[in-house]
Amino acid sequence: GQNIDQPTEMTxxxxxxxxxxxxxxxxxxxxxxxxxxxxxxAPTFLSYNVLDGLEEKGxxxxxxxxxxxxxxxxxxxxxxxxxxxxxxxxxxxxxQLIWGAGTKLxxxx
Amino acid sequence: TAGITQAPTSQIxxxxxxxxxxxxxxxxxxxxxxxxxxxxxxxxxxxYSNTAGxxxxxxxxxxxSVSRANTDDFPLTLASAVxxxxxxYFCASSPGAATGELFFGEGSRLTxx
Lengths: 109, 113
Hints:
Strand content of chain A: over 45%
Number of helices of chain A: 0
Oligomer: heterodimer
Shape of chain B: globular
Distance between the termini of chain A: 40 Å
Radius of gyration of chain A: 13 Å
Largest sheet of chain B: 7 strands, mixed
Strand content of chain B: over 45%
Number of helices of chain B: 0
Number of strands of chain B: 11
Helix content of chain A: under 10%
Structural class of chain A: mainly beta
Order of helices and strands of chain A: EEEEEEEEEEE
Structural class of chain B: mainly beta
Shape of chain A: globular
């Protein structure tokens, strides 16, 4: 079966750096996506990796290793507004998105 | 800019009743999707449409039906609601089918009693 694993919850301090890991086992691979979802709101697209390596976008970076079935989302200079759930998703060989359950990130002052 | 509009925002429904969740987009996207989101689970695809006039079944289609008469609208119907259909429902769209960059509506919270 297809599976995406990410930690259920993480806590970090304002101003610090946090890394949210995602491992996947899917039928084929056509890209890995990270979304942010604030409580009670819709998911919004953050980043996309299809090749190995690091993609940087401001305070957020996403890394992919296809051989290891592994990605992480790195958030720098954490702000209180970064408190949200972060969803990892993989586009499989049928171009269907397979979603992880999400990681709830709690930022403390 | 509206993007994707869902209605209603929330609804309480008696078991056995029917219900249609509405979804309209103004981005002229070809592909549209219906997901349900339950605590502790990832988003699960109910039905999708790659282009107007076509629909397909997702991971959890039982008890739900959709139609795609035009590009903008993609309603989701529960013919006879059951308590296990209590969930938050998200409609989403993308310019084309073969992409993981989706645009989501604000969600419809449905409670079936």
